[in-house]
Amino acid sequence: MAQNKFNSGNFPDSNPAGYYRIISFGDKIDFGSIETSARWNITNSKEGIGVTLNGSEINDYIFQYAGEYEIQFSETKKHDEGCNHPAFPKKIIVKVNPVKLSFDFSKIGFSQKIRRGINYDNLIVSVPGKINIQGKTANEVKAPELLITGVGTSLLAQPVNGTIEIKNGTQVFKYKISGRVDKESYLMFDFYDFNDEVQSFNLQQIIN
């Protein structure tokens, strides 16, 4: 089956096309607190979308369809007049992918309890992920990454399966963990989706 990854590379800084953001259909983008003097013109010519929004209304806009959206930014006053929001480019491009992945951390599982001072080479972390698809898309994609951080921690994660079959429904994502924790620490598990956006899980127990 053909392989494809919706965003080249495994991490957020790998974006050769220079998109402002890469998200999934049905998502929003938080641009922060925006003054009412700001105006946003959103277009997606393929879907016949043309919307004009003011100020922070952009934060509630739902990108319903996959494709590329051009967003033109303008404002009625200059920044030297005391604007309280960041300066945005006059034009930005947002890519909206046709696949959405949501991890269910209420059902995350560990094949072993993680303890301090133990070398692990075959610890398995598993978590269900719900996939929703809009239209036609690739049959398989590269499995998303997992990063683990914590004080005195050198745990590396490798997907058990190198590719993921893209189909509607819930799949279990499994990662093989190697390395060790040398200090008392809380661990954070950063699960990347197909857009290289992070969904984080904080392990509540301290590793000791």
UniProtKB/TrEMBL annotation:
<protein>
    <submittedName>
        <fullName>Uncharacterized protein</fullName>
    </submittedName>
</protein>
